[in-house]
Specification:
By secondary structure, the chain is α/β, with parallel strands linked by helices. 49% of the residues lie in helices and 12% in strands. It folds into 2 domains: 24-142, Rossmann fold; 159-238, no CATH class. It has 9 helices and 7 strands; from the N terminus they run βαβαβββαβαβααααα. A hairpin with a 2-residue loop joins strand 4 (75-76) and strand 5 (79-80). Residues 24-137 form the Response regulatory domain. The modification 4-aspartylphosphate is found at residue 73. It comes from Sedimentitalea nanhaiensis.
Length: 239
């Protein structure tokens, strides 16, 4: 199904308060916390959200329909989001708006080089920033007519989603993670922790990432992340 096919769904006109009404946004994101933020942003904007947590799942979605907007996290469990961006930027018909997202702003250039139309740095919490990122890149015929209400609301995801991410990290580390799996853990934990303003955990993730780049021992950094993650899971149980 094509999101822009007028016969695929009832035509709906966006409003000043809900400028993305009727649009489908496919979010490719493995973090439950980040995806919850996206869900709230889409809800406030009027957009429908579909979620894929890995490249394989995203490609299954794209075999069924073409969304109006694709938002891709660059660090995914089965590869880099830049690969999917490059595929879809060259596809015909092309997804109208392709946005990359990451907690590491250093990867923005790589995303743009792969074909992304824009980059959203995590944490993505501003409704106004989110809406502008989409609307400024939509085809003219899909943009809302007339004035638009600029909403400066800040989105606050449910902390339970952060606990879900901690459980995910604990599962990955329980399987004797090494090599590229530790690279994934470092980027995932770093992105989620920064989004949740968990400075201690974010610093631990950065330390692991640096150790991996140097090719040095990582046992202490890995154990520190595992301990911090367990502390956060224990906090949930205590509640």
């Amino acid at each position: 199904m094509d999101e822009f096919d007028p016969f695929s769904a009832p035509h709906r006109i966006s409003t000043a308060n809900r400028p993305l009404l009727g649009l489908t946004i496919l979010v490719v994101e493995d973090s439950r916390f980040a995806c919850e933020a996206m869900r709230l942003l889409c809800l406030r904007s009027g957009a429908r959200i579909r979620r894929a947590d890995c490249l394989k799942s995203a490609r299954r979605h794209l075999q069924v329909y073409r969304p109006a907007v694709l938002i891709v996290d660059l660090g995914l469990p089965d590869g880099s989001g830049t690969d999917l961006i490059e595929e879809l930027a060259r596809a015909a018909p092309r997804v109208p708006v392709i946005l990359a997202t990451s907690g590491d702003e250093c990867v923005e250039d790589a995303a743009i080089a792969a074909g992304a139309d824009g980059f959203l740095a995590k944490p993505i919490t501003s409704l106004a920033v989110f809406q502008d990122a989409v609307l400024s890149r939509l085809p003219p015929e899909q943009c809302p007519l007339g004035p638009r209400v600029i909403n400066d609301e800040v989105i606050c995801p449910d902390p339970i989603a952060y606990q879900d991410d901690m459980a995910h990290v604990a599962d990955v580390l329980s399987e004797q993670a090494e090599g590229t799996t530790l690279d994934y853990v470092a980027q995932f934990v770093g992105g989620v922790a920064r989004s949740a303003q968990d400075t201690i955990l974010a610093q631990a993730a950065d330390s692991l990432a640096q150790a991996r780049k140097r090719g040095g021992p990582v046992a202490i950094d890995t154990a520190r992340i595992a301990g911090l993650v367990q502390e956060r899971l224990n906090q949930k149980r205590a509640i």
